[in-house]
Amino acid sequence: MAGVTDYTSQLQALLPPGAAWSREPDAALTKLLTALADEFARADQRATDLRDEADPYNTVEMLPDWERVAGLPDSCVGAMDTIYARQLALAGKLAAVGGQSRAYFVGLAAALGYEITITEFSARRHGDLYGDLYGGTDWNFVWQVNAPATTIINRLYGRSYMGEPYRTWGYEQLECAIEALKPAHTQVNFSYGG
Predict the structure, then answer these.
(1) Considering the entire predicted model, what is its pTM?
(2) How far is the C-alpha of 130 from the C-alpha of 124, rounded, in Å?
(3) Contact present, 82 and 160 (Cβ < 8 Å)
(4) How many Cα atoms are found within 13 Å in the side-chain-facing hemisphere of 78?
């Protein structure tokens, strides 16, 4: 990103040579070029800001527009109390393009700020080891989300704003998102802490 002095130097480099085109710092022409350079530097900064706003993890000014396009808040997200939580919810919603694999749901949880593992169950079959727990055929359609007892999302330096809470926790958003996106024929259990 170029600053005011960079743009002033660039504008002065465009001037023809000669004594009439003074490049002294106190010259009226230099002051005029510095005023023009100030606007160029401002436009340059806003272009950089726009590039940052195109990333849902970094957006602040355009966050309401991103949320409107993504359909947030929805029944899973509700009203969020921090900018960072809203950014995570937006990223999670945009990452939720669909899938049925473990990796998809682990990635969805990570986009929402949670670290999980998934356990899949199955019915006992001929050839299973003696002593394996018996489960009926319904267990073919059950899976479990495993998460720590508590996931705390701390206030982040440089990503938090005045008036936001220092910590947030809870699994309501994770549970709602997974329940909404899980395959319809399956049942998901949630296990926290061990």
Answers:
(1) 0.56
(2) 10
(3) yes
(4) 6
